[in-house]
Structure formats: C-alpha cells, structure tokens
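Late entry, evening session. Most of the bench is empty. Finally got around to the prediction I had been postponing all week. Sequence below, unchanged from the version circulated by S.P.
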Amino acid sequence: MNRLGGAFARMGLAVLMTGAAAGARAQILPRILLVVGSPAGGGYDANARLVARHLGPLLPGAPGVVVQDMPGAGSLIAANWLANSAPRDGTAIAILPNATIFEAMLGNANAHFDARRLNMLGSANESTAVAAVWRTAPFTRAQEFLEREILVGSSAATSNNSVLPNLLNSLLHTKFKVVNGYPGGSGVDLALERGEVQAAVGADYDLMKVTRRDWLREGKVRILLQASLTRHRDLPDVPTVFDLVSPENRDVLQLLMARQTYGGLFIAPPDTLAPILAMLRAGFEKMFAEPDFLADAAQADMTIHASNAPQIEATLGRLLASPPEVIARATAELRRLDPQ
C-alpha cells in the first residue's frame, strides 16, 4: 500500500472509531421526557409516574425521567407531537391510549402519523374498559342500557369516553347520551360525584382501582358492562359487549374492541436510532420484572400485566392488517361520530 493509501486507511479507521464512540455516548441519555397524552390525576398519568420512578436507574447513565402532561383532542396532540416534533435521540417518549394509535387508520384527519412507524417500548397492563354507573342512578343491569337513556360524561369527542359509548349506541343500540367537555377522565369522575352525569363509559378498570379505589371499596359505582374481548378476572359475572351485540356487527366490534387491548402504550418516536431503541426496550422489559417496581405498583393497587415491544407489535400488526371491509365499516362508524 502506498503512503497516500495508508493515510486514507488510517483516516477511515479513525472515522469508524469516532463514530463508534459517538454511538456509545449517544446511549447515555442525560434526561428523558415522558409525555402523557391526558390530564394530570388520571390513570395514564399515574402509570407514567410509576415508570418514571423506576426506569432511569435501569438505563446506562441512570437518566432522570420527567413526566409532562400534554392533554387534548383525545391524546392526538401528544401523538402528533411524538410523531412529528419530538427528538429522535431517546430523550423523549410518550404514553398514549391504545385506541389513539388507530385514529389515522380509521380515518381521523387530525391524526398526523403512521402507526406503523411508531416504535413500541412496552405496556404495563392490559385494558378493560367498563361502564361504571353511579350508585344513585337507577340502573342495575347492562340490559337496561338498551331500554332507556342514561347520561354519560366525556372529555372530548375523540376521547375513548365519548367514542366508545357512541359506538355502542350504533352497534348495540344502547341509549347513552354523551355529554362532552369535561377536562379529561378526572373531570368526568368529578361530574359523576357531583351528579351531573350518571355514568362513565370507557374508563379502564385497573386504572380505576388506582385512581378511584374508594369508589369500588365503598360501592359508589356499579360496574355493569365490560367493553373488552374477554372478561376481567375481577369481574367474572359482568357481561361484555359481545353478550349484547348482534351477529352482523360482531366483526367490526371485535376490531374496535381489540384496539383497546393495552392499558397505555409507551412509545418512542419514528426514526429513533436503533441502539437507543434497543436500550429503551431492554430497560422497560427489565423494569417490568423488577421487584421494586412490582412492589411500588402493588402499594398503589396497580395491576401489572406487562407486554414487551415484540408482543405489542405483533398484536397491532394483526389489527392494522384487518380485512378491508371490516376497516371500512369501523371507519364509517367513527366518521359518523366525528365527520370532520
């Protein structure tokens, strides 16, 4: 090799070594911003703060994890920020409702992201959406939802606590009258306590056990219906929506219910560097098995049924590949609820 060739070879080796060192340094994160797509005080916020207490020490450099609530438009503000504005270097992640991920596929023009490009990190629990009726409301059976009107509180037209009862009105012929405009799930909870509405439809049961444990302990609410594919282990005698649906609507209802499989998805932005993504995923998977994390969750009455990134991506992949006719019907239902 001549002298010039040797110089280029040494230069190339130096560049490679510098790049490798930079890659290693890139995996040491100074701080992670964990954005919550719903208001403070709700279940997703509680979930995020639990993770914030335990994730950092399991990552190289033990970065601090700072929680920031970014509510609005049924979590679409946070989802759009994550997909389009958040840094791709691992310093910003988010927790979003599972249903939000499907908004673009199901025709919501305000969802400016491709769900297939979002990077799943993990989920701490499964989701069982329920219809919770305040104890003074004259409803004791799910069948009564089909027979007379009941006032249901909601935060926004695109929120699960509005979309779900309206979908059930269409597919099950329930008579939920949805009152939008309350500030997040916590605002709906206060409306229930004040008697402004009679029920909340779409609240996650496991998260309710955390944020409103006194409701369940003192019998302030009655859980009359589960909007889920299977019964929750705590609610073996409470019917699911599939006990009330007619055969012709079952397939589209299955898609719309399956998108609620997880009780909050932790997600990194598109195009996150591969080493950073691998590090974050490993951190979440290790955290979900950590005794301190599980003890902290148990202390707060939080039920942990963790799923790792490959499990979530496999589930979401099946749903995103649903038959076109089923997606079209589900899209039509959602567009009817929010024609914009």
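Two things to note before I forget:
The longest strand covers residues 221-227.
DSSP finds twelve helices and eleven strands in the chain.
Will write this up properly tomorrow.
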